[in-house]
Design brief:
Rossmann fold, globular, 7-stranded parallel sheet, 11 helices, 7 strands, 49% helix
Length: 283
């Protein structure tokens, strides 16, 4: 980056929603390694506490935690109280609801939760947190997106539709906030070897094996990326390590290449083939 330290560029505190495991924990470790204190939220209190302890043991930073579902109707008030009195200079929204079923088979309660977590919460929290960043003339907002946002896929259409909103929100904020010293963008992540990805029981329909952490680390090239690699990729962007911050960044060059290909291909063929692929794995 410039001669400024990371904390000077963004601030002394980072809020990471969805920061207990997988790429969220990797983002937290990257921020802590740069001397930034952490506010971490996730739904599972025990897992969150374990991650916080690990981070405190590894890095000389303060780590505060809040067990909360980002789909709750009072999410703004809850996060506002959690961050009260602190200068949150970096906001990473990594929380996600991931419904996986045919649209008409999905209970309306799950559809509402999908919108609450993937649309409403990032919108409202970004509005609350970006305002003081603009006033200070520094800060960063990262909305963690998904390759599912680029293509309508059978069994994932409600999730992909919600994440497409988040994709456009992050891109537009890049343009609106960059003249105010605030970096905002969407970080699009493809398949990543998190415990929840490998150990999702619905993948058993495709005779796909369960994995432990060691097996994940030994996956051959072409398998889902490691959370640590995804985390490092995001912070290379924030560090401006040979990268100019733009409206959208990808966690892996292969994902960007896929997005470029999809942009020029037949939507009929793309959506049809994607539906066949998801159906063969999930049903």
């Amino acid at each position: 980056m410039t001669d400024l330290t990371f904390a000077q560029r963004y601030g002394e505190w980072a809020l990471i929603c969805g920061g207990s495991t997988g790429i969220g924990a990797a983002f937290a470790a990257e921020a802590a390694s740069r001397g930034v204190n952490l506010l971490l939220t996730a739904r599972r209190a025990e897992v969150l506490a374990a991650t916080a302890k690990d981070l405190r043991d590894r890095f000389p930073v303060e780590v505060r935690t809040l067990a909360a579902d980002m789909g709750r109707p009072d999410v703004r008030e809850v996060i506002g109280d959690f961050a009260a009195g602190l200068e949150v200079g970096l906001f990473i929204y990594n929380a996600a609801a991931e419904p996986q079923s045919l649209f008409l088979d999905t209970p309306v309660e799950e559809l509402a939760a999908n919108i609450a977590v993937n649309v409403t919460a990032p919108t409202m929290l970004t509005w609350d947190l970006a305002k003081p960043m603009v006033a200070r003339g520094r800060g960063g907002v990262v909305l963690v997106g998904s390759m599912a946002s680029l293509l309508g896929m059978k069994l994932f259409i409600h999730y992909g539709a919600a994440k497409s909103y988040e994709l456009i929100l992050g891109e537009g904020l890049w343009d609106e906030l960059r003249d105010h010293g605030v970096d905002a963008f969407t970080y699009v992540v493809g398949s990543t070897g998190t415990p929840s990805w490998y150990n999702n029981p619905r993948r058993l329909n495709a005779d796909l094996p369960m994995f432990d952490e060691q097996q994940m680390a030994e996956q051959a090239e072409g398998a889902p990326r490691r959370p640590e690699d995804v985390g490092a990729g995001l912070f290379r962007v924030l560090d401006r390590d040979g990268v100019e911050i733009g409206p959208r960044h990808y966690s892996h060059p292969d994902d960007e290449a896929t997005a470029i290909y999809q942009g020029g291909a037949s939507r009929t063929e793309l959506v049809s083939e994607a539906g066949k692929a998801t159906s063969s794995i999930w049903y």
